[in-house]
């Protein structure tokens, strides 16, 4: 396989269950050695796409290529694409050692080679002392490690993972996800990962595909997805966002001058193709709005009434009523405005405002022009 060839290429794939179209003409390229995440709400088709890649389902239309080979019609056990599930799916009557060894039996390796591979997995996942235990005598985190070991021992170039961390508690979930990412980068396998947790998707991935109702609505790096969401759905699903309607009044140098509420917003053009007279939706992440006790002058500044606040340890979230809407503001400052109340003032940098067409469509940003810091 050529170095820049994708490990997995999905082209125009559709899948129906009776009258219901679960996957609607999806195309996705998964680069070799990447960590690609399918992100979307429950029921949007993430698991179905994973099962199509793994060979548990056949597409009604379209093709799936792995390492350049067309997979259509090839049964799951011939694809070498192990799938790690949320519920681990360990064999309950087999020990840790037997669970890890299971897939190797099919490879009919010399005994010593197989044992060395199992020991390498036991070392890698810290499963010493647990080799002879049955799954029911393991914690959730330990069972998940065995499930990863069982998938990785096969030496596959591709590992598929369907919400593998969902049954772990919050702290363990973050620990295992960081370990998993390090492992993937060290071993260099291609990972396809499913989650509905945006924080998990952003932190672990090279590439995120955002799903909505059987369609992929955006594919990009975590930064692109977060900073330049292609639609209101993507903006909303990938994190908290403020939306405001505006009309482009003029283009001045590198800025779009936008009438918004009672004020003017200057937004860096950044490759947006909007022109005067067009209606736009401004998308502003809560952490990009600064709050002040005294009013700032000029554009990109507005004032409102503080409704309430909540303390989150690393930041304080404020809800502020201004221009007929409630704004969400996350302030991670050193706490100098902990006693903020009454009239408050907000401002935003012109590069921290993202624009979408007001009609609810999607935006295409010319590549190479958007400064995504
Ligand atoms: N075998 C099946 N028969 C009929 N409908 C199915 C089948 N598998 C999935 N579906 C339907 O297809 C849609 C997509 O399901 P899928 O499991 O792929 O979603 P998902 O995004 O993985 O959701 P979740 O995050 O809840 O697991 C759902 O509406 C589901 O009910």
Automatic annotation (TrEMBL):
PROSITE patterns associated with the record: ABC_TRANSPORTER_1, ABC_TRANSPORTER_2
A Pfam family: TOBE_2
GO MF annotation: an example: ATP binding
Keywords assigned: ATP-binding, Nucleotide-binding, Transport
Gene3D superfamilies: 2.40.50.100, P-loop containing nucleotide triphosphate hydrolases
Taxonomy, superkingdom: Bacteria
Domain ABC transporter per the UniProt entry, residue ranges: 8-238
Record's protein name: ATP-binding cassette domain-containing protein
Organism of this sequence: Paenibacillus glycinis
């Amino acid at each position: 396989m050529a170095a820049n060839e994708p490990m997995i290429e999905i082209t125009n794939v559709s899948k129906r269950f009776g009258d219901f179209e679960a996957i609607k003409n999806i195309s996705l390229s998964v680069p070799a050695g990447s960590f690609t995440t399918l992100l979307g709400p429950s029921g949007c088709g993430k698991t179905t796409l994973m099962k199509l890649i793994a060979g548990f389902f056949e597409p009604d239309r379209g093709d799936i290529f792995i390492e350049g080979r067309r997979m259509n019609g090839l049964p799951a056990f011939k694809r070498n694409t192990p799938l790690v599930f949320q519920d681990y799916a360990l064999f309950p009557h087999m020990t840790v050692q037997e669970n890890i060894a299971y897939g190797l039996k099919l490879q009919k390796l010399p005994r010593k080679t197989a044992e060395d591979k199992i020991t390498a997995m036991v070392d890698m996942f810290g499963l010493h002392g647990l080799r002879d235990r049955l799954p029911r005598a393991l914690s959730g985190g330990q069972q998940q490690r065995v499930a990863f070991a069982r998938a990785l021992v096969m030496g596959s170039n591709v590992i598929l993972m369907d919400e593998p961390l969902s049954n772990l508690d919050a702290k363990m979930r973050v620990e295992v996800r960081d370990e998993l990412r390090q492992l993937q980068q060290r071993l260099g396998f291609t990972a396809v990962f499913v989650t509905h947790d945006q924080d998990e998707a952003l932190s672990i991935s090279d590439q995120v595909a955002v799903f909505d109702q059987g369609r992929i609505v955006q594919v990009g790096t975590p930064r692109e997805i977060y900073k330049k969401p292609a639609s209101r759905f993507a903006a909303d699903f990938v994190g908290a966002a403020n939306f405001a309607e505006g009309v482009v009044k003029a283009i001045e140098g590198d800025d779009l001058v936008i009438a918004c509420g009672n004020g003017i917003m200057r937004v860096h053009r950044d490759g947006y193709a909007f022109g005067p007279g067009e209606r736009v939706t401004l998308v502003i992440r809560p952490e990009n709005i600064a709050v002040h006790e005294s009013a700032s002058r000029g554009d990109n500044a507005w004032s409102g009434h503080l409704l309430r606040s909540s303390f989150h340890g690393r930041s304080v979230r404020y809800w502020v009523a201004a221009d007929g809407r409630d704004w969400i503001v996350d302030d991670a400052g050193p706490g100098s405005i902990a006693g903020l109340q009454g009239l408050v003032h907000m401002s935003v940098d012109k590069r921290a405002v993202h624009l979408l067409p007001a009609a609810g469509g999607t935006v295409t940003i010319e590549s190479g022009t958007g400064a995504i810091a």
